[in-house]
Amino acid sequence: MILRGRAHRFGDDVNTDYIISGKYKFKTLDMKELAMHVMEDLDPDFYNKVRPGDFIVAGRNFGCGSSREQAPLAIKYADIAAVLASSFARIFYRNAINTGLPVVEVDTSRIEDGDELEVDLSKGKVVNITRDEEITAKPLPSVMIKILNDGGLANHIKKNKGFALED
Amino acid sequence: MGKTIVEKILSAHSGQDASAGDIVLAEVDQIMGQDGTSPLAIKAFREMEVERVYDPTKIAMVIDHSAPSPNEGVSALHNLMREFKKEQGITLYDIGEGVCHQLMPERGHVGTGDLVVGADSHTCTYGALNAFSTGVGSTDLAAAMATGKLWFKVPPTIRFELKGILPAGAFAKDLILFLIGQVTADGATYKAAEYAGEAISALSIDARMTIANMAIEMGAKAGLMEPDEKLREWLVAHGYTKWNPVYPDPDAVYEKVLEYDVSELEPQVAKPHTVDNVSPISEVAGTPIQQAVIGTCTNGRLEDLRIAASILKGRKVHPEVRLIVAPASRRVFLEAMADGTISALVEAGAAVVTPGCGPCVGTHNGVPSDGENVISTANRNFKGRMGNSNAYIYLASPATVAASALAGEITDPRPYITR
Questions:
Q1: Residue B239: exposed, middle, or buried by beta-carbon count in 10 A (0-12, 13-18, 19+)?
Q2: Structural domain count of chain A
Q3: What per-residue confidence (pLDDT) applies to B419?
Q4: Touching check for A22 and chain B: CB below 8 Å?
Q5: CB-count burial class (<10 Å; 0-12, 13-18, 19+) for B382
Q6: I need a surface site. Which of A19, A130, B64, B110 has the fewest CB within 10 A?
Q7: Above pLDDT 70, what percent of chain A?
Q8: What CATH topology corresponds to B271-416?
Q9: A7 Cα distance to chain centroid
Q10: Preferred mutation among B51, B69, B139, B221 to probe A, highest tally of A CBs within 10 A
């Protein structure tokens, strides 16, 4: 699958409280409602700026902090196509795959706010169209590819009546 | 080749000779969710189209993050958990019972050698009980409830050799803040930490839990400690009857071993807005504060409340400071009432709130105002964490928070401490 959109640039250590604040996440299971507050503490206008299919691009340790799955879900429901970061916090990374939000571990140091990107998830390749550069991403573990291909962990369990992770 | 604690526990639970880097599917001993994560887990469980949980005796849910409910949205989610409890026969700790990470050890749900997953990032707390316990999201929790299993990538381990005994006025909280400042917020990401040495052996189990609790703040998957006689006695006293101690092999392979001498450690403070932004108290003393918080899964235990009370007893909180105290559990609350700790705190001016997470996650119980400084015994000081992104949160030990509440500014507690 090839995704194309604009980069919204953030820094290092973007924690899950910034992605979706605790003051909202406890109230509802309506992820559309939560999505309106995504990244609000870092950029109050973020939700309105995003066009469907855009990317969040960040530095090191994206998604650190709490285990709230509302964080990847709020991003997904804000119509962000994928998150690209130099590294991810581990619970967020698992949660993203489990809920079907593509996450790409890639050197983001030369991607600027507003750059037009093309992301090939299956090949693990990012093309920065604005700068005419190609960057290779770190591949997903095969266990996670299985879960993503099944449409997330809930579908994986439903389809296989349990875990089916062996090659 | 020798194994670390985490390699041994994951091997035993997967039936596979597991080393760092391997992927294992492991049997889970205990599964925990709280009110911020369980409703989504229940939703994911429904999507899996599984009728019954794998084993209801292994599942506990806790209503602690927004307890009692502050609004109708939260009330509906709490009721979803209560309905699930009735339907599946799991354990539910409702409002007022306490913080999940106090209840799991205190009510005998976890002990040596266990593998525990919890839909809360501070699930790493039970590493102090020699368990491999780690935070997961709601869908992983649902998968564990449905199958009794979860997959893990076996993490490499960083071993912290902590020499010396903490000096008077420096506590477990100061030690873990210091270590986080040293290795930074992602210094242990995808890794386990082992905390060892005489500094750890000398600590109570309460204090060890403070350290393991904050392993996630250095990015770690788990923060483990070796078992000892003190732990065995503690587990027996809390109704956990198995004894399955797991020690690292002498030739265990570590990613690195970091040695620190803690015998002259100063009290430490994490400054806004990251937990690794740590300074010794001498560099931040004098910063004015408007709110002080003692409690949470990091520092709401009996020992913590007693330390705070020993400083506050017979004194008055500064007139421009609100002091909020949240005991970690109903049992802690009762014990602190019985021994006069609560009286000392309340007479000094503290407002005691329901045992639970208190104001830590910004849902209720003391949201700060714009521009205010808060000093708290919690584990996170992210911008907006306590419900207002224009407030500033400093993290410190119960002693430092108590001394600061008296002075109205960040204050070194050592003049108040006699040992």
A1: exposed
A2: 1
A3: 58
A4: yes
A5: buried
A6: A130
A7: 99
A8: Aconitase; domain 3 (3.30.499)
A9: 12
A10: B139
Tokens read off for B232: 């065995």
| A18–chain B Cβ distance below 8 A for any pair | yes
B147 touches chain A (CB under 8 A): yes
pLDDT of residue A28: 86
B153 contacts A152? CB cut-off 8 A: no
Rounded to whole angstroms, how far apart are CA atoms A115 and B280?
Answer: 42
Residue A10: CATH number of its domain: 3.20.19.10
pLDDT < 70 stretches in chain B: 419
Reported confidence tier of residue A121, pLDDT bands at 50, 70, 90: confident
* B43 contact A CB<8A: yes
pLDDT at residue A24 is higher than 90: no
**What 8-state DSSP symbol labels residue B98?**
B
Query: For residue range B258-304, what is the model confidence (pLDDT) as tens digits?
Result: 999 999 999 999 999 999 999 999 999 999 999 999 999 999 999 99
Here the tokens at position B109 are 């749900």
- Which CATH number applies to B23-260? 3.30.499.10
**Burial class of residue B13 (count of CB atoms within 10 Å of its CB; 0-12, 13-18, 19+):** buried
Cα dihedral: B386, A100, B18, B260 (round 10)? -30
Structure tokens at B124: 């790493």
